[in-house]
Amino acid sequence: MYQIIDGKRISKEIKDELKEQVAELKKQGREIVLAVIQVGNDPASSVYVGNKKKACEYIGIGSLSYELPEETTQEELLSLIEKLNQDENVNGILVQLPLPKHIDEDAVICAIDPQKDVDGFHPQSVGALCIGQPGFLSCTPAGIIELLKRSGISVEGKECVVIGRSNIVGKPMAILLLRENGTVTVTHSRTQNLKEICKRADILVVAIGKPKFVDDTYIKEGAVVIDVGIHRGENGKLCGDVDYEKVAPHTSAITPVPGGVGPMTIAMLMHNCVEASKVGTN
Ligand code: NAP
Fold first, then answer.
1. Residue 21: helix, strand or coil by DSSP?
2. Domains of the chain: which residue ranges?
3. DSSP conformational letter for 254
4. CA distance 213 to 64
5. Active-site residue identified among 6, 117, 119, 227
6. Do the domains spanning 30-113 and 139-262 agree at the CATH topology level?
7. Atom 47, ligand 1: which residue's CA is nearest?
8. Which of 20, 81, 133, 267 has most Cβ atoms within 10 angstroms of its Cβ?
9. In this structure, what is the dihedral angle of CA atoms 66, 72, 78, 80, given to the nearest 10 degrees?
10. Quick check: CB of 260 below 6 Å from ligand 1?
11. Is ligand 1 within 6 A of the CB of residue 209?
């Protein structure tokens, strides 16, 4: 029988731990504030932003909300970020992606003070991750490492295969698995023999962005499967990048969608906000 890795329960556990830490910090007179910027009103982004604000409220983190119109210029957005960079009452800055096409996302990410980069997307945060220095970790891959640890699954010495090499999931995931002493292979759209490579994996992380792409023919018997994907099917139900029904019986542990990786992303964002409040105080 396989283990269903319960991201909902584990994320609640993390949020409750953070809530206690935040209460302690409050007793010392320290308030944590996250600034959340959304440009335009993409419905999916609005849901994500709403969930982030709810998590802040639950933990006791203050949130400042900036809902800017679609036609906001890059200069206007950059000047708001600069203002928040300078504001010592703001600990973390989050710009919800994707941004409208006329705004250069890289320029915006680079404008955020690395000490307030709670998404972990700034080149300085990514560089620190690569060379093993302290810095903010990208929330989704950091959440996956936490899921594995808190489910008693060790990475050390394991064959780990990551499908996807995006800057926000695949690449940082590979580096974090390496940091945990896994033997890591990263695959992408030009990879040949994808199935054969996946079949070697003790731990398979799927971040391909295609609904139910990975079926049982990709799985080594007893592997751990982490499904990062999130899609709304025609029937309105959510599904992942993995065909759960076909794959689960062949695994030793698997994340469901919903209730697997998704809730961990926000929990790790909250973790980063708490860490951000400690910057310069240690
Ligand atoms: P992305 O930027 O679209 O990246 C997809 C990756 O998959 C790319 O590296 C691409 O390769 C690779 N790929 C595409 N087709 C492939 C194929 N046939 N064989 C092998 N590799 C292939 O997506 P992402 O931002 O990493 O997100 C991946 C999924 O995770 C999406 O479903 C997204 O919605 C979800 N997501 C969930 C969370 C969460 O909190 N749960 C957070 C972030 C993302 P190339 O580089 O060669 O194009």
1. helix
2. 30-113, 139-262
3. E
4. 38
5. 119
6. yes
7. 189
8. 267
9. -30
10. no
11. yes
CATH code reported for the domain at 30-113: 3.40.50.10860
Ligand 1 neighbourhood includes 145 CB (under 6 angstroms)? no
One digit per residue, pLDDT tens: the chain, 282 residues? 999 999 999 999 999 999 999 999 999 999 999 999 999 999 999 999 999 999 999 999 999 999 999 999 999 999 999 999 999 999 999 999 999 999 999 999 999 999 999 999 999 999 999 999 999 999 999 999 999 999 999 999 999 999 999 999 999 999 999 999 999 999 999 999 999 999 999 999 999 999 999 999 999 999 999 999 999 988 889 999 999 999 999 999 999 999 999 999 999 999 999 999 998 664
Residues near 47 by beta carbon (within 8 Å), at least 6 away in sequence: none
Q: For this structure, is 115 an active site residue?
A: no
Atom of ligand 1 nearest to the CA of 169: 26
The pair of structure tokens assigned to 276 is: 């951000």
Closest C-alpha residue for ligand 1 atom 23: 209
Query: 207-230 burial, b if ≥16 CB within 10 A, otherwise e?
Result: bbeebbbbeeebbbeebbbbbbbb
With tokens 């951000």, the residue in question is 276
Residue 147 CA to ligand 1 center (angstroms) comes to: 20
- What's the CATH superfamily of 139-262? NAD(P)-binding Rossmann-like Domain (3.40.50.720)
